[in-house]
Amino acid sequence: MTDTTIDLTVVGLYLVGITLLGFWVGKDSNQSREGYYLGGRSFNWTLVGFSLFATNISIGAFVGGSGLAYQAGFAAIVPEINGGLMLVISAVIFMPVFLKNRIFTIPQFLQLRYNTAAKVLFAGLFVTQSCLLMPLGLYTGGLAAIGLFGWELTPQNITLCALVIACTVGAYATFGGLKSVVITDAVQVIIMLGGGLTVAIVGVIKVGGFGALHDAAGPEMFEMLRPRGDPHFPWDAVIPGQMMHAAFYAFCNIALLQRALGSKDLENAQKGMLFGAFLKMGGILLFTIPGLVALAMYPGVKPDTTYAMMVRDFLPVGISGLVLAGLLAAMMSSQDSSINAIAGLFALDIWPLVRPHASEREAVLVGKTLSACNLVWGVIGAHLFLTLDDSIYKIVLKVTSFMILPTGVCYLWGRFSKRVNGSGAVATLLSGLLLGLTYIMFSTLPALKPHLPEIIANAHFYHVYPVFFIIFTCILYGVSAMTSPPTEAHLACINVTRDDSAPLPRLPWYRRFKFWLVVYLACFAAVYAIF
After folding, report:
1. pLDDT reported for residue 85
2. Cis before 240? omega within 30
C-alpha cells in the first residue's frame, strides 16, 4: 500500500465516521422548527463554545491564515484576537435581547426592531454572501487535499475534491439540522486542534526552536500592529477598520450566533461565547506559528500552498492523513454552520412570505432543499477561484466584512438609538448590498480592478471600511429623520431589564461569567502587550 493510499484511507474513514455521527445525533431533530434549526434549545456552554470556535475557524484560517502569516507574521492573528473580544461584547449587549425575544433566527431581530422588509433584505445579504463563500470554502478544501497528495492543480481535480466534501458535510448538515452541526463541531474541534498543534510543534522543532524561528523570520514578523503602508495589516487599517468588521461579525452573523440562540439559557449562551473567545486565541499556535515556520523553510513559494507542504514533509504517513482530516474538519465545521443557517433563514424568514401557513414539516423540507442547491452551486463554482490573485484569507475577510457592514450598522444603532426606524434600515440595507457587491467585485476580480479610482484601488480594504460605515450611518439616520419615528412596539424588543432575563443561580466566584470575563480581558491585553 502506497503512502498516498494510506493517507487517503485515513481521510476516507474520518469522512464516513463524522457523517454517520451527524446522521445519528440528528435523527430525532426533524419533527419541528425548534428541533431542526435550534437543536431544541438544549446546548450547554461547552457545546456552544466549541461550535462557535469551529464555525469561525475554517480551513481558510489554516491554509489561508498560515499563508497570510507567511507574509505578515503575527499581524495575521489580529482578526481572530479582535473577533474574540467582539464576541464577548456581543454576549453582553446583544444576547440578552435575542434570548428575551425568543427569536429563531438573527434576522428576526430586524423585524421586531424595524419591519419585515428589513428582515428580508438582511436575508438577501446573507444569501449573497453564502453564494460567494460556498464555492470558496469547497475550493479551499480541495486545495488542501491536492497539495497534500501532490496532485495536479486543475479545475477537474478541484471540482472532484469539492464534490466529495459536499457529499459528506452536506449530508449530515442537511439531514440532522443544528444538533448534528453542533455535536459534530465539538468532535471536529478536537481533531483540528490536535492536527494544528502537531504541525506547529514539529515545525518549530525542525527550525531549531523558537529562538531560531525568531531569528529566521525576523523580529518585525512577531509584531501584531504593523507600520502604515504595510500591504497586509497596517495598524491604521486594523484600528478602526478591522475592529469594526470584528464587531459587526460578532453582533449579527447568522451562522455564528445560531448555536447561541440554541443554548439552554442566557448563562450558557454568554459563557459559551466567552469560551469561544478564549479558544480563538489558540489561532496563534494553530496557523500563525506554522506560517512563520513555512517562511523559514520554504522561502519564495506561494504562501497559500505552504500548509499542505508542511503536512506532507513534516509528518509520517497516516499522521499526515489525520492532519488532513483535521483540515477538512475545519472546513466542514464552517460549511455545515453556513448550510444550517441559510436553511433556517430561508425557511423561517423568507418562505412564510410565500406560504404564511406552512406546516412545521414543510419549513424543515424547504430548508433542506435550499441547502442542497447551495452545495451544488458550491461544487460547480469552486474552480473559479483558481484565477484570483489575492490570498484566500484576504478574500474571505473582504467578502464577509462588506456583506455584514450595512446590517451591522442597523443592529448597532437599532440597539442603542430610539430614533432610527424601518425606512432608514431598508435604505441602508439596499445601498449596502449594491455598494458592497460593487466594491468586492471591482477590487477582487483582475479584469475589473483597472476600472476602480486609483485612490480606492490602492487602499487597503480596511481603510475603505470606515468610509462605508460613515456613509451607511448617514443613510440610516438621514432617512429616519425624514420619516416617522418608530412606534413603541418596535422599541419594546430592546428594553431589557434585570427582570426580563431569567434569574441566574448563585454560583461560586470561579464559575461566574464576570470572573472569567475579567480573566479574558487580561489575556487579551497581554497578547497585545507582548506582540
Report:
1. 93
2. yes
